[in-house]
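Continuing the batch. This is chain 6 of the set; chains 1 through 5 are on the previous pages. Same settings as before, nothing changed between runs. Recording input and output for traceability.
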Amino acid sequence: MPEEKIEKAYSYLRSKGWGIKEAPICRESEGYLSLGNIKERIKGLHDFVVDKDVDVIMSFWGGTNTNQLLPYVDYDLIKKNPKIYVGYSDTSALLLAITKKTNLVTYHGPAAITYSKPDLMEYCYEYFDKAIKGGEWSIEEPQKYADDLYFLREKDADRRIFKKNQGLKIFRDGNCDGEVVASNLQTLLVLAGTEYLPSLKNKVLFVEEAEDEQTPMIHRFFTQLSLLQDFKDIKGLVVGKFMDYSKVSQDNLETIFKEISTRFRGPLIYNASFGHTDPIFTIPNGARVKIKLSSEVKIKFHYD
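Output for chain 6:
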């Protein structure tokens, strides 16, 4: 990533009162893997865990191989040194593992790259700030959003193309109250059969998917999700917005949701502002959420 993009993200966070520390290997790569080898990546994480000056550990980007780290993470060290862990997409693997192994709340929310984008909306930071401060807060959907691949445009790559947000949509109504599990969909699935997969029993599940997956694979992922042993016991399902690049139509969603909704009870709502579109709200793994569907959808997070 160009240095000016990195600095834009850091400057924004500094304007909010943050100091910035990078792991020494943050900009290194090894073949198709970023951040160096596993040993170096784990050392970078553990050094931040014990650093008294570090309060928040935020990923800069996503990727595909965070699950490589999970057997080598010192979860006792993390539990003894509680901090805020935040990211999304592939980082979901680490967030879910930490919450599963330590009972700490982790945050499915912005990465540093979120704050490097053109036409940044304050919504992202506002809801991250609400989440880490705790208490109780409700989600209000933004009036507009962007899902354009601005970084691929030869012209006007310094601006976003915004669309009117249609808000949360209801496939099946109902109310629910339960502990939160939030993840990128395929990242949740790569944990299936491992000790790092969270129990879905009595949970309210939030899932999103990246732009590089198209409808057939997305359908496949949702089918696999619905076949997980605990899926039948979830209390509700919230699905994040799909990017236009994924070509997931309303008819596609109807087909997918008709299939998987037979395998659990409770509300199913979608088009929520989290995942790979902008802006996003932050979801606290391990906290609780109440969802009420009446004349409008109400999502309210709270801590025990």
